[in-house]
Specification:
mainly alpha; Ankyrin_rpt; DUF4219 domain-containing protein; two-stranded antiparallel ribbon; Ankyrin_rpt-contain_sf; 2 domains; about 270 residues; DUF4219; Serine Threonine Protein Phosphatase 5, Tetratricopeptide repeat; single chain; 2 strands
Length: about 270
């Protein structure tokens, strides 16, 4: 039976086994053999509704990253050509199906009814983002944890980047494309230390998670020591903690050089001790 928010592919069933029923009700008993042998993995705390996109998208984003599926949610214009490269297309097709399924089972019935006809994970992700109708502006006086609508004067200090620009900024961080990152930051200077809406991560969090050493070093150069102490929204991890989890010592070292107190900061992973 399908369960909202649970990935069925995480459930493994053993062969059914029936034992005599001594209760007299005439129905065979279920034995542990037909109980899932692996506890289902919950992708989200609650399925997507009209009012919880920010928290929902953070959880689903992390799940897709962890399953190596996030890339297919960003490759709408770079889908492999089946005729030219059938092997690459086959890999994309499988990952697309897995990502699409993860998104679908993380939606309420009402939300699912709006996307069930779509066959491309990136199109579904874009649709759900744009459906939330965000208006993004970073202000140096306000730490942005999610959507934050500011008046035009407040927004002017960091530029008027629209949603698609922030989406491309996150993609550039994921790729480690410094030219694109620097171009965005030149027009939106405070974005270097602000959390990216819907994701709950600063640029340094994203780069540390992706393992881009050179880009991380350049971002650290642009940050103040206290900026490195920011924690992401899902687990409360600092960028140093994410680098330590992935074992990327070069990134961790450049952060510690900038702020020597980072190693003792408690966070979602208990501490960032290396």
């Amino acid at each position: 039976m399908a369960v909202e928010g649970v990935a069925p592919n995480m459930m493994q069933f053993g062969p059914p086994s029936i034992v005599p029923n001594n209760s007299g009700d005439g129905f065979p008993r279920m034995t542990p053999a037909i109980i899932p042998t692996v506890v289902p993995t919950t992708i989200v705390r609650e399925v997507l509704t009209e009012s919880n996109y920010e928290n929902w998208s953070t959880c689903v984003h992390w799940y897709l990253v962890g399953q190596d599926l996030w890339e297919v949610c960003q490759t709408k214009d770079n889908i492999p050509d089946e005729a030219r490269d059938p092997e690459a297309f086959s890999v994309w097709e499988k990952k697309n199906a897995m990502a699409l399924h993860a998104i679908q089972i993380s939606c309420s019935g009402e939300m699912l009814s709006q996307i069930r006809g779509q066959t491309c994970a990136s199109s579904v992700w874009d649709f759900l983002q744009k459906r939330a109708k965000p208006t993004f502006f970073f202000d140096e006086e306000v730490e942005v944890d999610g959507l934050d609508e500011q008046s035009p004067p407040a927004a002017a200090s960091t530029g008027n980047a629209d949603f698609s620009q922030y989406e491309r900024f996150e993609q550039a961080l994921d790729r480690g494309s410094w030219n694109d990152i620097e171009s965005f930051l030149n027009s939106n200077q405070d974005a270097v230390r602000a959390k990216i809406p819907f994701v709950g991560l600063t640029p340094l969090h994203v780069v540390a998670l992706a393992g881009h050493v050179k880009v991380a070093e350049k971002l650290v150069d642009k940050l103040n020591p206290e900026d490195l102490e920011q924690k992401e929204d899902l687990l409360g991890c600092t960028p140093l903690a994410l680098a330590a989890i992935d074992g990327i010592t070069e990134i961790a070292q450049c952060m510690l050089k900038k702020n020597g107190t980072l190693a003792g900061i408690s966070d979602g992973m208990k501490s960032s001790q290396l």
